[in-house]
Amino acid sequence: MKRQRKTLVDRLEQSGKEYATYLLQHSVDELLSKPSPTEWSIHQVAAHMRDTDQFAFLVRVERLLKENDPAFANFDQDTYWASHPYSPAEPIKKIVADLLAARRKMVRLIRAAPDAAWKRTGIHSAYGKVSLDWVAMHCYHHTLEHTAQSGYVLEKELLKSLNR
After folding, report:
1. Among 22, 43, 118, 126, which has the minimal tally of Cβ within 10 Å of its Cβ?
2. Is the model's pTM score more than 0.85?
3. Domains in the chain, please, with CATH?
4. Which of these, 88, 96, 90, lies nearest to 25 by C-alpha position?
């Protein structure tokens, strides 16, 4: 595996662990509190991350490794939750465990992929032609986005406690 790809896969693996660490630092109130009525809570975002890792990113990796020119639909969380309802009562430890299991499997598959697999492509309904590189990078950036979101909540709570 090329050095650049190895670095990406290492970051993908580590980012999942870092996100999980942030999630487990939140109180139940922080997890379930919504920044506004139209925004998701940290708990909902965590369920979304688990769902996208399990049912979008991991599936895309598996299909890119097994199929020629697979077609990928855009993952729509609201559509998914219509048939698999979100529950604020689901323990965060279960969400984190499911997320990390999917991420470990995805990283294991990517690390084992032969060089030729990195040249395989599929067609994504929103992005067009995509590759294993792109799926790994997109998953990594998705994780960074939501890690920052969780981290900002922790920063805000820390500032509140310091300024009481």
Report:
1. 126
2. yes
3. 3-162 (1.20.120.450)
4. 96
